[in-house]
Each structure stands twice: as C-alpha cells, then as structure tokens.
Amino acid sequence: MFARIISSLRLSPIQVMAERTRQAVKKGDSVIDMTLGEPDFPTPEHVAEAAIRAIREGETRYTPINGTVKLREAIVDKFNRDNDIQSTIADISVGCGGKQVIYQAFLATLSAGDEVAMAVPYWASYSDIVSMNGGTFRPIMTSPDKGYALQAADLEAAITAKTKWFVLNSPSNPSGTAYDWNQLAEFAEVIRRNENKEFLILVDDIYEHILYDGRRFCTLAQVAPDLANRILTVNGVSKAYSMTGWRLGYACGPRPLIEAMTKVQMQINSHTSSITQAAAVAALTGPQDEVGRRCAVFERRRDFLLNEFSRIDGLSTPKPEGAFYLFPDVRVFVGRRKPSGEIIADDMALASYLLDSGVAAVPGSGFGMPGFLRLSYATSDENLHIAVQRMTHALNNLN
C-alpha cells in the first residue's frame, strides 16, 4: 500500500519526546520541556506588525516560486552585510523553513548510491532526508572530549568517489559546536584537495546569531570564496527572530542548483506564504538589537546549566559555543537501576526516566550518538532552575 521508503523512516526522536511531554502535561503531570529547539521569546513586534500590514494591504496573492523580489533583495543584502557573500536574487531560494530548502537540494541532486557526509552528532532530520531521496548517509564520528568538533583529517578520510554532499552545521544542533575561521579554512583545504570528486557542500547556518563568548560568526563561502560555486548556504528566520511557526528558510548557492531546486518547489507548494515573506523582510531589514539581547540571555542560561551540571557526579557536559542546546554524555548512567529496581537499558530509557521525574529531554541516539542527551535551554530561567533540581535528584537516585 505504501512506498517502500515509508517503512524505513523513523519518527523524529525530538517530536516523539515532545508528544510524550504533551501527553504527560495533559494528564496533569508537571514537566519542564527541554525537547524542542524553539526560542521562548515572542516574535519581535515590528515583524508581527509587518505581517498584519501585509494582510490589510492585500498582499495575499501568489508570489514568485522563490519569493517576492523584495524578500530576495533583503536576503541578498543580508548575505552581503553579514557574511561577505555576493549574490543576486537569481541565486536565492526561499522555502517553507530551512528543512524544505534542504529537502529540495537533496531531491534535486541525489541518485541511488550517492553519499552525504556529515559530522555526528547531527540534526535528526538530515539522515532521513538523505534516505528519502535515494542517498546514502555517511556519518563522521566526533568525540565529546574535542567538543564534538569535526577534524579535517576525519573529513578527508570520509570523502569517497561516491560523495555527493558534505553537510556542515555551525553552530550545531545538537552539540552547539561552532567552527572558527581557521577550522573552516582547514575544511576548505580538504575540499580543494578532493576537487576531482566534484561534491557539493551544504552549510547550515540557521543558528548564526546565537554564538557565545565573544565569538565572531563566519561561514565557509566567506572563508573560501573560490568554492562558492559548490556551496549552498542555508539560513532562516526561525531561531534568531523567534519565528519557528512562520516557516521560512532561504539559501544562496550556484545558480544551476537554485534553478533545479525551484523546479522541485514548483510542484510541491508553489511558494511560502506571502504574509510570512512580508514578515521576513521586516526581520532581515529591521532593527537587530533584540537578536543580540536574546543571545545574551541564552548565554547566561548556558552558563547556569553548565555550573549546575558540573555538580552532578558522572554527568559530563562539553561547553557549547552556540545554539541553545547542551549535549551531555550520560553513558555512565546507562546500566544503573532506578529506585524501583528497573535497569536503565539505554539513553531512551534514561530519557523516559527523566520524563517521569519531570524533565523532558531527547535521547542522543536520535542524533546518531547513543548514550547522550540533548537538552534545549530555550525556556525560562524559572523552568531551568526547576529542571536542574529534578535532574539532580533523579540522577543521584540511580544505583
């Protein structure tokens, strides 16, 4: 009855735990939700007003597939202003969230047997999107003792004659790992040495504006402009501007690839909501002060959690450099017993135990790294204080 690919697709571990959390709350349980990567701040007022104004002024008709000229001009300006990437509106793709942009890039390029290489841990959707489009996912392992940072030598070893894409997400979901100029330059050298392989590079910069400790953001097309004809730089408005539900992502890349992605989108959803596009213009061209202020809040929350988690015996938590997640190593707790006597068999069982204890987290196995957890601190300070108390009590009660 169903296509063969359906049986191989897994439910998103993020959405599974989020739904279990909703059901627990519906039953009346008190749960601090640390599952979803969704800022707890509202969409900025001037962005919301731009959407309302667009409705009132009748901007409710079809738009070009790749977005209004006004929006694409704003994106071109953003790439030039923030990233030193030169482009025109013909080099821009706009979709319903970064996920659709990524999906269309893979659908437009992958054939059976093509490999897509990326560092582990990785955002859960990447591997399934690769599989859905006939590709083969090729993970490149990292380690917590190096902050989950991909090493250039490991990238080189992962590239084969079948490599079609290398995916780079910085700052990373779920680890918060961010790469500086020198690290990106090392990756660029690896790519140049393998120029005969002719693979593409997808750079996911969705957490660009959530970077800590005074770091300056840089992206691969900025560091290595000579590789721009092979790089698709993906971004969006969901994280920086608290617009997750608005659904708008965008990308800049080689024109033939953008044109191929446009053909795909033409048959999927025509274009992103005209109202969302108007709001995105306001987000990208309006005042940016609030973005920095919110980043400072996330950094303070990160520091609070790192300090508190350091007090929990056995919990090892590398310091993230961006995004709003912690990805602690919890392997020491696997195999221990709950107060009931039941054994914690794996990270999914540990996440279930924590949910029963009033904290919702996502098991690391969903991100390619069993024995770890992802915790989003995109929630209130009050919630984080409660979550720390509950996690400390729950983990200390394992035998």
From TrEMBL:
The keyword Transferase applies. Its EC number is 2.6.1.-. Keywords: Aminotransferase, Pyridoxal phosphate, Transferase. One of its GO terms (biological process) is amino acid metabolic process. This is Aminotransferase. GO terms for molecular function: pyridoxal phosphate binding; transaminase activity. Residues 31-390 form the Aminotransferase class I/classII large domain.
